[in-house]
Amino acid sequence: MRRGYTPPRMQPKLKRSELDGLAEFHSLTPTKVEALLDLANARPSRAEGLRFLGLCLRIAGILSLAAGLVFFVAANWARIAVFGRFALVELVLVICAAVAFLKPPPSFAGRGSIFLAFIATGALLALFGQTYQTGADVYELFLTWALLGLPLAIAAQWSVASAAWVLVLNLALVLFCGWHPTGGMLWILFGGTRFQPAHLVMGAAWVNLALWFLFEFWSVQAVPDWVRRLLMSCAFGFGTWAGVMSIVEIGYNHDGPRNDSLTFVTLTLAMLATTIYTWRRKADIYPLAVVMGTFIILSLTWLGQLNGFHDEGMFLMLALWLIGASTAAGRVLTVLHRRWREEAA
Questions:
Q1: Which end of the chain has fewer CB atoms < 10 Å from its terminal CB, N or C?
Q2: What is residue 168's predicted lDDT score, i.e. its pLDDT?
Q3: Is the peptide bond before 106 cis (omega within 30 degrees of 0)?
Q4: Cis bond leading into 30, ω under 30°?
Q5: Which helix (H) or strand (E) holds 12?
Q6: Distance from C-alpha of 114 to C-alpha of 161, rounded to nearest angstrom
Q7: Which residues, 6+ apart, have CB-to-CB distance to 13 below 8 Å?
Q8: Are 156 and 108 in contact (CB under 8 A)?
Q9: How many whole angstroms separate alpha carbon 119 and alpha carbon 111?
């Protein structure tokens, strides 16, 4: 071997989970674990770190271009005529479509151009609403953006575009459930006194949960695990919100029966379906963690509502319950994760 020669890095033959199991089985010390990771080439190289940094900078560049487009139109609102405003945004959409056609995904140019077109679609809708004052509610803007941007998110074949679409959809659902507007296309179906506020929030939870199940059964490369976890977080975020509203009776119309069984039945079904599917699949512990977090928050709310927040002793009992339930949940999740990892190996 000539002087100064550095052998090339070998590709790792063991997965990180297998290395963790090996270190745990042999009870390796931290020093030996460091040596094991070095020998197995399990650490990211300098080139991989630079590649990740470059990807982050590229995404930041796309977001900067989109922000620049919006701010340019807003800053020159009085100087640019109506036709010019729409022509500028539509020209960006045409350029993005041309780039995506010439360099289709999975090339970064195609993915980035489609992602920029997705953001420009929202800017075009906002421009239309601001110019003509249609009177549409804000949630309708984001809901229309999500519907029109769905083909773009699918065509991009990119997790970043998928996550952006999920955020836009859930922002529309948050605005609809939080503001309770008295008009709009969703209220054609869900308006009136038939539904309590918690029912609407629970419906938003089931939208996210249905998408999660869809992507679990129809797993594609463009929807990786972290995007599905984002859907799971949004689903049980809405579910926890609905459960808390039902327990403390926020915004309820008590002309009918006071017992809101619909929210708890649908929320219980969501928790059971997620738990059973995750238990049978034994691949990802995160859904169980989200379900347990929802249960702990709802149980705390129910205990506080049952006994009232009248003295320091009640707060102490709630604190003890939070510590005990969180510790037990963490222990169960740790044991299950370790067992599932061993069975997969």
A1: N
A2: 94
A3: yes
A4: no
A5: none
A6: 8
A7: 40
A8: no
A9: 13
